[in-house]
Amino acid sequence: MSELIAIVGATGAVGREALSILEQRKFPAHRIVALASARSAGSRVSYNGGEITIQELTAASFAGVKVSIFCATSGISKQFAPIAMKAGSHVVDNSSAFRMDPAVPLVVPEVNPEAIPRGTSTPLLIANPNCSTIIMLMAIHPLHKRFGVEHATVSTYQAVSGAGAAAMDELREQAAASLAGAPVIAKVFDEQCAFNVFSHNSAVDVETGLNVEETKLIKETHKIWNSDKVTITPTCIRVPVYRAHSESIALRLATAVTEQQVREAFVNQPGVRVLDDRAGNKFPTPLKTAGGDDVWVGRIRVDPAAGFDASGRSRHWCLWVCGDQLRKGAAQNAIQIADLL
Amino acid sequence: MSELIAIVGATGAVGREALSILEQRKFPAHRIVALASARSAGSRVSYNGGEITIQELTAASFAGVKVSIFCATSGISKQFAPIAMKAGSHVVDNSSAFRMDPAVPLVVPEVNPEAIPRGTSTPLLIANPNCSTIIMLMAIHPLHKRFGVEHATVSTYQAVSGAGAAAMDELREQAAASLAGAPVIAKVFDEQCAFNVFSHNSAVDVETGLNVEETKLIKETHKIWNSDKVTITPTCIRVPVYRAHSESIALRLATAVTEQQVREAFVNQPGVRVLDDRAGNKFPTPLKTAGGDDVWVGRIRVDPAAGFDASGRSRHWCLWVCGDQLRKGAAQNAIQIADLL
Question: Does A313 contact B at CB distance below 8 Å?
């Protein structure tokens, strides 16, 4: 194969991660078109012992490109995705630009690969879901498939990386300033992120009180599961962690099941890893998850508010889930979609 | 009044906070007996422009003391609380030693002041609840009183201060090491606390999967509300924050109410402050709460999984709550109890 793959926004947090995943896969450098704004054009990033030169994103960037992975803003996706497709490239879009477009499949490869049309010769546009949605669904889809998830209450502990590389720098700079007793400057977030937690920085609907991140969790789950029957109670919170998200999830299933049935649902589940050592108090953490592609599940337990029925079954379960926002929550999921194309 | 107040464990995180609260109240230094282990005896802490000398905790420490506030370990409380009471002192105990003892009232002054016996001349022992319980109940009791709380799903974002002053130092040291690229050393917690979150460090029951912190939230709420009818789905998590806890709470009420009714329940509620600016994305954070005595409530919204009924009412509500673990979660609550004695 000598087809080209384009990374749009190659200097951003997700773009860099996409390059790092391609590097781990020994994908040849000469088949990568690394695109960014004019400001970054000409700069070099190290890759497989060599270097890749960043090119300016223009309408002419997509000639001969088979798949373009967009890792930039919604604005860039809206402007350049149609251009890339006209040039014959499939597009996998990490932004929120097309996620809720009924004509655009929204895909987690382990959950709904069937949403990608097969056997068409025209370039496809596939949207990559929001990171919190991907990480939640990786953990609860195995249960949904077998037992039906009716309701999920989810509180997130989201890394700053979801707001990009600048947010990760801000966490570092604020922590250093705080430790030095110097003034802490907030630029990316309105709230101090170092040594603090705060309600997600996305806009809050003044009518419903939900922020955009919480609305995404609900709407994207409905679209990916192709059903709006599941109800979700989301609370999205930022924590001072660099790059992996965590989620506290309480589920109501359609069917009462044993703890063994719940645990068995995660066995041999691609992309899912269980760490659930009650005696040793060892469970998933964002640090353990960071840099890897698995979503980790632990604290698997019956909801004490419901307990077991007489047959040792329950419809109510709790989980603690961690996954790298930049990997499975973004770049890795996008590259998995590219693999399917 | 010339009665003495004793602070047992005056050099610990909660003990220091208790002294700081007394200082703010201009409580005279000569009426404070500051007690700690032999190791700290003789050291001085600044107080109201002067100094207080730490004395060694012994069986003779409680002569003439009216109220002793225990801010040390359960072991110290078990050993010295009976001695203090024999010497004629009331005891307010911050440890978990006596909380579940049916003979010992467990009190949040804004919630169940009536649990403190009146008109007895014998010294009383009153237990101070766990920090997460106090902070949750301060926020949900106003709703419980009016509308009945049937079920609460709570995920915590707990500061390291709950594990004492050494844990706060550990967060500082780990953050500095991490920023310097040096090895991060974990002593107080098994998991790295800087730039990480992790399941609460208390022991996990291998049968139920609940940790001790989660069990406290359930059992202490039942005791304080004097009813085990409310069911609780708790997940307790540590976050890299120095001293204030946050909690994401979803409630099912017995009665369907309007949003206005929910908001009115918090008006003029002593110890509760609402910050809920949807348009400005301004909500409670642990940093805003730190050093103060109020529990802050925000993100007040109907649970989108349930929504409103035709009359604009709902039984399902979500809240985001922050409170200083060392103040209202410990020292302040204890001193308020001492006031009632």
Answer: no
